[in-house]
Fold these 2 entries.
Entry 1:
Amino acid sequence: MSSAMPPPLDPEQLVALDRAHVWHPYAPMPGRTDPVVVESASGVRLRLARPAEGADELIDGMSSWWAAVHGYGHPVLDEAVRDQLGRMSHVMFGGITHEPAVRLAAKLVEITPDPLRHVFLSDSGSVSVEVAVKMCLQYWRSLGRPAKRRLLTWRGGYHGDTFQTMAVCDPDGGMHSAWAGLLPDQVFADRPPAGFDAGVDQEYAAHLADLLERHAHELAAVIVEPVVQGTGGMRFHSPGYLRLLRELADAHDVLLIFDEVATGFGRTGALFAADHAGVTPDVMCLGKSLTGGYLSMAATLCTPRIADGISRGELPVLAHGPTFMGNPLAAAVANASIELLIRGDWRTQVKRIEAELRTNLEPARALPGVVDVRVLGAIGVVQLDHDVDVAAASRAAMRAGVWLRPYRDMVYSMPPFITGDEDLARIAGGVLAAVEAG
């Protein structure tokens, strides 16, 4: 049998086959628009196989859906993958262990808030949330309290696209409302008041306290995205609400889950969003930036209380086991990415990005239809008074040499941490162009 690789497809062939066969996220099938064909990526730039709106390359303002914090083709991460590939690419995790996964678990325990000491590895952010919910449900079953099976969250949230995670996403916004009646019925608080520096609104605090008190008998856990509600609206809220939720959860014997899939590893200006509040959840979910955007991997961390409770139950094991759990390649590059972040000057990088985005996005306030401009850490958002024309806005950004992915009523950017000031200015220019076009 010949080992020769088939000849490469030209861009036109790629696009034709893509539209005929490839189902893209949140897109119809067959596709109705031509996708941008990326040939390669390096640093913060995506090189295109054919020009898009006159551009041969685009500055990535999205970090590949917030994951590629070190950019593309980083030599340290490339070497970590090559080295591990020479040892083994994968081995099952049931009854077997290996150094990359053990090192990763130990490192995550070291850098996350104490006492998160146990780590369950999976392969996507949605699955990490599924595991977190299962941990909490199984914990109460193991303690003989199966009636505690509902979750409380606040509106405006997003936790993934699998069924349990959809159940705790905003019940009205987005596309998950199409599944009403099929998803578990959860308890929803109002959206947290906006503003990272706004402090705690006492009326809203009373609203949360009332919900916890009335539903404590049936609540397994509270689950929230700490500080930043991501896909549900890119809204920032006071860390004080995290401290309040910790106090209320403890007072009413309810567990607390922080979904840090999007916020973890420095994106908000703290290593973890929980650090802004100085509190520890019972369960924390991590993903996206975990591997620096190289491979899909996620982690669910829990305290000894959770692990011990499950171990005392009739089913003394966590009933979950992904095929690619603890994948050595992903674990190896995750270890390298975390070391690169911790040993580097990520705080200075994120502060610099925050300052540049604040300055360069400020002119958006004067544009028609803009209702808010907000920046936190390496997140910049321009919110409009109408839904964005995504196609028109994306084309405008590409004409400015920038890749963005606007959605709903927002044009936003989460650039890689290595993005230089000149490129940040160009990203902001792309945001402004997209706002004017959308």
Entry 2:
Amino acid sequence: MIVENFLSLGGLVALGFTMTTLTSALIPNYAAAEQVSFNDPAIKATYVKFDSPKGHGEGQGYLVVPKDLQVKAPVVLVIHENRGLNPYIKDVARRLAMRGLVAFAPDALFPLVGTLATMTKVEQCRKAWTRPKLKKIFLQQLRF
């Protein structure tokens, strides 16, 4: 599929579009979409690792809490889409914390490949994991 997409892009390049213009339009610019910085003084953002009770090894998620939280607060579970725990999902968790909520964004792909560094790894995960496997990661690993 990547080769087919590349050949299609090659045809567009022949029409006068530059490859840089085309690829920048296809790849999300997470930095431009960030609304709350990870080091904002009003929040505390950390990565939390946890054991998987169903034998998937270790899980990881992104936990963000308001820094001045003194009482119990509602918790929001932020579920990522097929690209894993990417910068946009982390920003959503930070935005929730800025509104006084505790936000936790588990990384369903972490037990398979660890911290994702490339879109190639995300694509491998998408092909390897079925919907029931992902549901098991989210629900059983997080003890819901």
